[in-house]
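Box 3.1 A note on notation
Throughout this textbook, protein chains are presented in two layers. The first layer is the amino acid sequence; the second is a token string describing backbone geometry. Keep the layers aligned when reading.
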Amino acid sequence: MDEDTQARLSARITGRVQGVGFRNFTRRRARRLGVTGWVRNERDGSVRLEAEGPRTALDSLVDAVHRGPRMAQVDDVEVNWADATDEFETFRVRR
């Protein structure tokens, strides 16, 4: 896949990722990278991420969520790739 090809990233992040600013961290990083999509807390304590953009930007976002904000403890990031659908206008936190 070409580095600038538009792609879609679906990820499930587990660990201490709720109540530590993880969603806002992800939103800020995604917007800085020019990525669209959303992030939200899940009932099981994980965080769900759906994002689209250039593959290089999405790879950078995956690297960022592996670290997370200072108070987070990321145990695992499950990543799935697909073709972009261009359904998002911006990147936002879903409630």
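The chain has one domain: 6-84. The radius of gyration is 12 Å.
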